[in-house]
Design a protein that fits this description.
301 residues, alpha/beta, Rossmann fold, 2 domains, 7-stranded mixed sheet, 4-stranded antiparallel sheet, 11 strands, globular, disordered C terminus
Length: 301
Amino acid sequence: MSKPFLSIERLTQQFSDGSGGTLTVFENASFGIEKGEFVCILGHSGCGKSTIMNILAGLAEPTSGVVKMDGKEVSGPSLDRGVVFQNYSLLPWLSALKNVTFGVKARYPNWSKDKVEAHAREFLAKVGLEGDVIHRKPSQLSGGMRQRVSIARAFANQPKLLLLDEPFGALDALTRGTIQDELLKVWGETEQTVFMITHDIDESILLADRILLMTNGPLARVAESVEITLPRPRTRTEIVEHPNYYAIRNHLVQFLGKRSKELAGQKMDAEDLRPETVRIDVAGESDASKDSSPALRAVNH
């Protein structure tokens, strides 16, 4: 069996508990992400989602375990991995355009100035930023515009892996919805591999190919991998009409509201550390099978 594009193997993170002992935040996290796949991870605060993100970005070292991308072990930050943070992380003294060109010049040092700027403008336009606004500094932009710049900067660098750490958490609902749509559009055009942290169930269903579910910490683990059986392209107004939508949503709510606590701290079989694969497909049920099979199916692989 071939290895996935991104392979997370037996990742464990421990910290000092302040009393001479250790606190295991999560252990033996093992999962894969295929090239071009959009994966979200959900879990309660304290389960280690952001720590996993920092390890994937090369900003932190795990206590044990390994991360491999394209067959090579991840170690330290790299232009092959782009990160979009919740707090934008733009350079305040540069304009929106120059925030994007700054990264592009580092990624493509042999490109001419005109080519770098044209490339940056192209990706700013993809997220709806054109005209005079791209010459404004971050302090002159709304929160939504700043996050658009941050997303454009990350995509413009064309990393092999794009990491999104709750990128819409600080935005109002209307702005959040607009930028989610723009993110889907840019991702569809670039076919980037995306790993995203979110606390929003509806957001994850709209965006993701799969959702990873973590149990509560400490001693958290990645317990389930839920396939999102909704056709693409997706819009928020259409997916709620699909018969699979609420079946998937109810499963996620039940896990986060109940099972994430029940499963917390349970040891996994050392031979099988991968999360349980769950596929819920109400729409896929044929009329002939409805009498003998339940409408909601969880299929383990």
